[in-house]
Every structure is written in C-alpha cells, then in structure tokens.
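quick one, two chains, predict together pls
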Amino acid sequence: MPGKTLFEKVWDTHVVSQDEGAPAVLYIDAHLIHEVTSPQAFAELRERGLPVRRPDKTFATMDHAIPTRIGVDISLWPADAATQVETLRKNCADFGVPLYDIKDEIQGIVHVIGPELGITHPGMTIVCGDSHTSTHGAFGALAFGIGTSEVGHVLASQCLMQQRAKTFAITVDGELGKGVTAKDIILAIIAKNGAGGGQGYVFEYRGSAIRGLSMANRMTVCNMSIEGGARAGMIAPDQTTFDYIQGREFAPKGERWDKAVAYWKTLYSDEDAVFDRELKLDASQLEPMVTYGTNPGQGIGISGHIPTSAEVADPAERRSLAAALEYMGLTEGQKMEGQPVDVVFIGSCTNSRMEDLREAAAIAKGRKVAGNVQALVVPGSKAVKAQAEAEGLDRIFTEAGFEWRGAGCSMCLAMNDDKAGSGKYVASTSNRNFQGRQGPGSRSLLMSPIMAAAAAVNGRVVDVREMMG
Amino acid sequence: MQPFTQLTTTALPMRRENVDTDQIIPARYLTAVTKAGMGDGLFSWWRYGRDGKPNPDFELNKPEYSGSQVLIAGRNFGSGSSREHAVWALTEYGFRAVIAPGFADIFYNNSLKNGLLPIALPEETVNMLWDLIEEEPTTTISIDLENQTVTLPDGQQMGFAIDDFRKTCLLDGLDDMGYLLAKDEGISAYEAALPY
C-alpha cells in the first residue's frame, strides 16, 4: 500500500463515521464565525431548538461589514452593518460562543486573528463561512470555507458531511529573486493552472521555496488556494510552524506541547504517497505579478504583456479575455508596467500581517503617495496594528500620505464603507479582481504589498525591483 | 428543503465563463441577517444600469427568457466567495437548476443544500445548448433527477453524474442536519478519544 499524503493523514483522523454510499461525517476541531455568514445559521438553530454543541471550539469576530476608520462610533455606522454586529453579539451571548468584539483588545480579520491567538494547529480541521479559510492550511491544517447551511451543521453537531477531495501537489523549488514574494508565487500558480484548475482538489504546496517562507508568507500562498479553484491548500508543518505557535494563547502548554509537536512532526506526505495531480514551478524564474483581468487567473509577470486573442487558443478563454478587457478598459498586448492607478489598498486576509506591512513600509519610507492616488493601509488585526505602531510603521505610511486604518476586511470586498469608485484602477494586495469587487465598477489589479506600495508612490504600476537597492 | 424530482422549462443561456459569486450577488446584499430578498440582488451589477433601471441587453432582462428555471452558463460557475446568498438569490428568483461545464466546489455544495440542482455537462454540450436556445428561446429542456437525464424536445438525451446520497436528499427534500444529529453517539465517542 502506498504512503499517505498530508491531506489523507488529516482527513483519515477526522472521519467519525462513513455509511455506505454516503459522504463521510467529518469532525471539525475549530469553527470560526463572523457577522456576515452566521446570522441565518443561528436563526436555524433557534427554529429547531438546538444548542451550539461545542462553543469551546467556536470563535467569533467581526471583520467584513465593519468600518475601518479609526474612532467612528457604532452609532455613526451604516445601519445594516450595525445590525449585523449587534446580531452577532446577541447570538454569541445567547449561545455561549466567545466573541472577539471590535470594542475589545483582540479583534481583526478572522483568518489573521485565528493563527495569532494560536487557535490554528497542524493536523486540525478548521472551517468558517468564508472561502479564505484556506489560509489556515499554512499550518498543515485541513481548512476550508463553507456555506451558511454548513455553518449551522457545525454549530449543531461539530461535524460536516464531506466528500473526500482529490490531491494536487504543487512543488515550488529554487530561490525567489529580489522583489519576488509569496504573493507572486500564488498568482503565478493560478495564472498557470487557471482559476478553476483546482476544482475538486486540495493543494499541497511543497518544495524548497515554500519551506523557506515565513508563516505570514505561507498564509498568503494558502489563502489564495480558493482563487485557484481548490477549497483548501496545505503546507506540511515544520520548525517554522512550531516556533510560530509556541506560547500563543490557545497553543498547547507544557507536556501537552511536547505531545502535540511529536504528533505534528508526523504530518507530511510520505515519500511514496501518490497525488492525483502535480505541478512544478521554478521560483527563480518568477517575477513580480500583476493581474489585468476579472478572474485571478488573468495575471502576468511585470515584464510581460496582456495576451493577445491570437495567443489564446481556447475559445472560452478568448471570450473570457475579451469580456475582462472590456470591463477593465485595457487593451490586448498591452504591458501592465506604466498602467496608472487611482487607489492603492494594502490589506485583506491575504496581505495584512506584520511582514507585509514591514515590506510595504520599506518601499514607502521617505517617499510620497502620488498626488492623484488614494492609498489605504489596513492592518489585519488590532495586534498587527499595535505592533506596526510600536515599530513606527504607521508614521512611515502617514508621512508618505497613506491613510492608516483600524483592522478589518475593508476594501477587499466593498461591503463596508471602503469602496473604490466606478472605473477606478485599484492596485490591491487583496485576493479577488472580480468585476465590482472593490466597489461598483472598480477595476482591481492584484499584486504584492511591495508592488502596491511602489504603485502608490509612482501613481502607476512599476517594477518594484527597480526601486530596491 | 424543496424536493427536486423532474422539471420541464425553458432555459436562460448565459454565455460567460467564471461567473463568480460577487456577480451572482454583490457584497452589498450580504448585510442582511435573513435569507429573504436576495432575488432582487441577483446579478445586480449586470442586471441594472447606473440609473437603477433594468439593462435591456442583459440576458436575464430579455423577455424571451422570462420564466426560465434553468440557467446555462460557462465553466467555473459560482467561483469565489462561500456566500450561500448566491444560491438563495438564484432560487428566490426562480431558478431550480444550473447547467455548466464545471462548478466551484463551495457553490456546488451550497446548491445541493438548497434544492438547486447543479448539472455538469461537457463544454461541447453547453455550447450546443447555447446555440439551440439562442436560435429558439422557446426550446424546453426536461430534467429528470431520478434517471439523471437532460432531454431536449427532439428526444436527444444527455446523462449527468450526481452522488447517490445527494440525489436521494434532493429527491426527498432532506438536509444534512437530521442525519448529523442522528450521529450524536458516534460523535460523542469520537470526542471522548480526542488526543488533546
């Protein structure tokens, strides 16, 4: 019998039961909830008279709908956002679920605070009513987004009915060049494999370039697994992972820590494990990436050009390209280098952690945001915000002309009051370039934090490598 | 959940790939705390002009497709966000099934939990259906879940795959909650054996 993949090891230890012809009943170790996708699930529990089975394995915060302008009282919020926040407060109080409230010390984007609090461990199953739950796979957890019906199932039973996914190994070997980041790795993977290329699979990222990434950078890669069509992406845990977790609030302590680490060290794909699909990338060949279209697979290296229709053989892809360029107001064959931008957004569950802000600040330092550009920096959590302020990053950003905000999802998804205007080009460190994603009619150009910072100070897309010593 | 057994209806051809859940239901409709009302927001970027009036060029607003209960779209339908609101919007508007060459995983799952039948057919078949329906919008298609078939008026029939368990749930209108709650004993035994 061949060995097991990392996914299979985690999956197998979580199957509570599997009836003939039915999906597995999969146990969930941690359930993260937020204000947007949970109200209807709590309503269902009330209708059926059900309690939350394991409030101790459930963690709530507010991030999607909340304003991120500092010091804005809830009485001045849009009414619907205030209602969602109040509804979450009531639901958490009624059902005994711990809540990291915006008025508390600890709060932020659910996929930033989960790992920060040490909730996320290798080998866990983690779900949330949010597709970017894939982020937590960076720790060797099986973590994926679920719909609101499934949120209800997990609240009531701590389990989900799931079909086992297929496995997909993505190996990135070699050394990243100067100015090439984790964001460029994942954008390159999606550009190569397509936005739907991971349907039905769980990705496992491996290889020397992945091993060399910090936890924040690994989270950036796993975060966008969903943009590659895979519900989850995983990285085998190693010393980098253990060092990150140790000492955090929900990390195992003392003897339990040693036991946990001993177990976590068994979580890797066996050498003779067989993957259903494989893809290899050479990190040394990558360059800073920028998207030009309206799905995350429509990305190119900074020295490249937008494909021409003649270069696209597949008719569906050609149609997709034409529709995207019409919306984006871009031309086939055009380079993205030099493209003017109106708004710059540094934030989101993809790129709002300390490393991201430090790298962006190094580019912003001593420079000024171009006159016609609105630039936002939105830390992923209150902890990130406090740490960044302790390091003086907020001053670097504000002196350069960036707005410094409170923690939240902000302009990643335009369901709060941070929106880009119609027709505006947004250099964004977020994860989706869908039509209208960052505001009705907005046009997103996805890139890394340093590329976004470089775009802010130049007023156009540039090759950040030329600004680095 | 509303059961799904058989359906004969006209269909709406949507010649677009990668229709993401932000298009199906933009985030500003997600500030609701109930499921109701999502149908009004369905495809709202495309459906309404800047002035809030219906965009006559958008498929959904064309009178010849009015009342269609099946949407036929391109590859990677429902990609993006996990928002089940996308499915609630489609069902509230009146769709009972979506045909596409492929669906995003989370959307596919969410559909099955709301009685919306996602049918994956080969891209050539989807192209053929688009051509046929655009030529003759009154064309009806018949879906038979029990037998897993899609049938055209000329008798041409295509089979589709669906997991047996999910099929039974759709046919009988059952959701997962009852099944999971009945597993309580097994779940408790599993929890008792958790390592830490």
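The helical segments of chain B are 21-24, 44-47, 85-93, 105-112, 123-135, 164-172, 176-181, 184-192.
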